[in-house]
Amino acid sequence: MNKRVIISVFALFTVLVQAKEVEWALDVNDLGQQMVTLKINNENVDFKLDTGSTTALSLPLNVLNKFEDKVEKKDKLKFTDGLGNVRYTKQFILHNLTINNLFYEQLVVDEYQPWGFVLDIESGNKIANQQKEMNEKQIPVAGLGLLIDKMVTRNHKLTISDDFTIQLASVWLEVPFSTSPKGHFLLSVTDNEKITH
Hints:
Elements: H1 2-16, E1 26-28, E2 34-40, E3 43-50, E4 57-59, H2 61-64, E5 70-72, E6 77-80, E7 86-89, E8 91-99, E9 102-111, H3 128-137, E10 141-143, E11 177-179, E12 185-187, E13 189-190, E14 193-194
Parallel strand pairs: 3-10, 4-9
Antiparallel strand pairs: 1-2, 2-3, 4-10, 5-8, 6-7, 8-9, 11-12, 13-14
């Protein structure tokens, strides 16, 4: 009888501590930025996904003010914007937050500050009107800090071929490659044109 009770307790404990697995649908906006919609405390919010950011979330003040259980940190976050200017932004700790059914006991977030700029591809000049529009939208940013202590699988298919006679569909960009003696990939493409060695 005791063995059955112990086995039942272990089985129940195993079920209770199973990890949650959630999927986030990634989309691309008109500027080519990865976008993801996150449900934060039962409200859908669109985020730019920035895999170069260590911050969990960068939220505009109007979104931050919706959280009652937040504490402002004493130290501000120092960062450099796209033009090399040093700037500072407020940081907050949000407690007991649920994001897409994942629970965060405490999460450090910062106040969103515009940091990039829009360039004309042909001239290399800043496009002030589009930049102003983008800054006014204040789209929140989700960074890698949101994924700390999480296992992430990105289910995009990567096809690599060394057969240059295969014609891929017109929606794909062919990237010819070779390998170095140490096994590193050597890409033979720059600006969508094949480099001749």
